[in-house]
Amino acid sequence: MPIDPTLPYDDQNIFAKILRGEIPCNTVFEDDLALAFHDINPQAPTHVLVIPKGAYVSWDDFSANASDAEIAGFVRAVGHVARALGLVEPGYRLLANIGMDSHQEVPHLHVHIFGGKPLGPMLMR
Ligand code: 5GP
Question: Where is the active site (predicted)?
Fold first, then answer.
């Protein structure tokens, strides 16, 4: 079910549990500000999720309320993962689902990194 991104942060969401170590994940990258791990249900040969460690529901929440260091750390983590996975030369796609129309399912901000094959049109027609 898509989530309402205007609701307060729910610390029982699955990514909050991953951040607390209550649920395992296949980590690709981690530092003080961000965590990247393989999606449990990959939609491409490479499908990694990058999340800020802070409690932010959406891009709107993050951009309005995160510190400059948190924002920089998150953006740099995405670039780090793309480089580490060899995606820079072949290319890759970033996707952030925010709210109902986008079918965001997990109410903790995340960017999907897709790669490893030609990714087709930008949106379903
Ligand atoms: P959304 O639709 O919110 O943009 O994407 C949520 C993503 O989280 C989905 O691609 C889904 O497969 C992934 N996901 C949901 N639960 C888990 C989990 O427990 N572990 C991992 N690694 N990914 C998950």
Answer: 110 (tele-amp-histidine intermediate)
